[in-house]
User: Fold these one by one.
Assistant:
Number 1:
Amino acid sequence: MEVEINIEEIQEFLPHRYPMLLVDRVTDMVLGESIKAYKNITTNEPFFMGHFPGKQVMPGVLIVEAMAQASGILGFKTMDKKPEDGSIYYFVGADDLRFKRPAIPGDKLILNSSVITNKKGIWKFDCSATVEDDLVAKATILCADRPK
């Protein structure tokens, strides 16, 4: 089922705000199954001032955070919950994390996440980040739904 979610609706499901909101748009989602979203990487990102001058590279931890945020949107939408309802979705772990190429200004970072399991509020997702079909990063990400 194709679903497009713009930045205003994303902000209803994620408590993050600039500069930590790392999902610009959701382009596809099947509740309880998968999500596809993206982050447009621009030279104006605040982290590029120091990472690295003369050779701008998006920090790997922020790529992982972007995958976790996309997963969080999928989890919140699946549970029909929002942070304003008193729920928060914590990023609690990453397994089998691998980086394959850098993400740089001008890239459109495609974020894919699929549900592996959901047990007692602990969700496990199979995630990847790509640019033009080239793998940037992949990981198994764990998130926990907890009261605020």
Note: The chain is about 20% helix and 40% strand.
Number 2:
Amino acid sequence: MSKQRGERFFFIMGLALIAIVLAGFVPFGLMRPGGATSVPALLHVHGAVFLSWFVLFSIQARLIGARNVGLHKRLGQLSVLLAAMMIVLAYLVMRHACGRADFSIAGLPGAASIIFPFTDIVNFTIAYGLALANRQSPAVHKRWMLIAGILMIDPAVARIAMTLDGPPPMILAIELALFVALIVYDVRTRRRPSWATMCGLGLYLAALASKFTVAHTPAWANFVDAVFG
């Protein structure tokens, strides 16, 4: 497979992630009582910044496919700024959620529920940091960037499942399908999965396990109270 076709894969995956974000949040917001205007301003800013990161990822993949490395590097500085804003906004949104008596994910209490967005943003930070650390290795860099996006797509996928009244395994199936697509790409281009791909999958599975174990412990509840209370 040519390098250009390889970059097209990352561009297409970026578009798929954008489609998931829009399909998850736009209908969900419109169906709220009062519509999108009833959504707090913090959540609008949060959504706009996160969506911008996904759009920029797709643009960056397209630029590499077009061999415009110079502009790709210059826009990379914007990516770092967006990533920093995402981490700060994620904390503010989690703190806002903890202040709501009705906050719940998957029917769990508030403290247990917060592990969902918390593990998402922690995994994003790890994956994005590894992408930056491997900028001199394009094959590793672009995989970690894509993985960073996949690791924080859970809220959008969960809302798609809710809108379609789908069972919880639907969320797992969609998210694993994104990893499977990357593994298939690896096998087709390298004859084996990349270490970055498998480590990213490991981060995803570790976060999944924590939602069924760590989230229900007194230590986690104390941590949430100390950090977000």
Note: The mean pLDDT is 91.
